[in-house]
Fold this protein.
Amino acid sequence: MQGWKNPNQKKMKLFKALTAKLQTNLFKNSLWGILSNIFQNILFSVFFIVIARQYDTHDFANYIIANTLYSFVAGFSTLGLGSWFIRELMHSEDKKALIDKFLKIQLYLGLVFYVFNVGLSFVLYDSSIIRSLSLIIGINVIFDNLIYMIKFMNIAQFEQKKSFVILTVEALLKFLLACLLLIKTVPIIYLCVMLIVLRLVTLNLFIKFGSSNQINIRHILYAKVDRQEVKKIVAANWSFVIIASISVIYWRIGNIIVSKYLTLADVANYEVSYRLFSMAEILPVIVASSIYPLMINAHKLGVPNMKPIYKNAFLAYAAYGLMAYTFVYSYSDIIIPFLFGEKYLLTAAYCNEMFLTILIFPTALIQAHVLLTMKLEKLDMLCNVASLVINLLLCFIGLHYFKSLSVINYAIFFSFLAFHVVQDIVLIRRKVTTVLHVTSFYAGSAAIVFGFYFLSDYINKIYLYFIFWSVLGLIFAGVFFKWFYKKNVPVISQPESVDPLIP
């Protein structure tokens, strides 16, 4: 009996020690990521705001279209092998060889997809300015592929701090460029050239300071990578390719559709809304990337060890989505005109529509990481493909009847909702979650959102946000402390009576 217990005790002791270490790393990396990304996005947002203000709608929209094409192609160019690379690097015995090989593959892919980016701009658009901007901006595909690899290498080794510092430096440089634009506005083409130079500086910083001296250009050039090996890697991990690509297509395809079916003003409105949304998704994305290695290690000891991590993250993410949506719903009318000017006064309504997706984006993200942890990437890929198809169908059908930007925003939301529901079903069947947990999430989210809508008719939204969440926070705090008290306060037994007649 004793011999049966000891292995389990030893196993649990090892798991607790490992979990404690990983949680410490998780906290450090997440904290660095959150602080760095807040700072970066403030500076990037300043740069974006300056561009929106300094250039007219026509130049701004052309820049957005060219930048969207580059972002669209960049989503494919890495072949989505970041998650696969993390998993392989954590288990690889020859990490140096794997890094050299993976970097060379990303370099080749960057060159191929740059050519594809230029070709796509010539096929889709007749505008000479869009084509010229794509020739310049598209160079970022090559640089981004190399930076992409180094960033994921740092994630696998719990060294995201290096990536965050370098990206913060890049944000500072962009901020300085924005300050120069306020003094002297240059033609939009010159601006794109300066941005390419800036990105090249960032790449050099990653190679020299962000890779822990694990990258040697000579070793990379001499690394043996043939076509058959690349085909083998892609064939074995094609689900990662599709998953990563779809995540970009989801958001960037909207701008391309808008540019072909609607006006340049709609392109600008969509981009402004998306920029605010991208700021809101920073926190869950950073924390999820840090939680992912923790879940991988916990899953090695069985699904029950992973479930507490998932449930706690899910609860926090659900709360974040609700607070982010109600915040934008309350203040978008004030924030957008203040930041971007009066010409974007009508953008607030479109922004509120887009932010419906933030209600389910964070929880869908953590559930996607659970599926990857359980090596269900092919299933997750099928969910992503189905969701994208629904998104495109809703877009084209909706635009056939209504020439409005609202069609794009609602198409994203309902397709994402379908994706979330399918995830729920899979995780229920895998006994990671329960029907009660899922229904509570949807019912609770709907109740809070509609309750906020109802109260906004009677209370000014500016004050409602703080009142609503203060009251709700007090209620939850009260319930929690009541539960905690019952669980932790021991029952004090009465002393034995000296009178034998008294029981």
About this structure: Confidence is low (pLDDT under 50) at residues 1-5, 491-503. The longest helix spans residues 2-54. The chain has two domains: 47-236, 242-456.
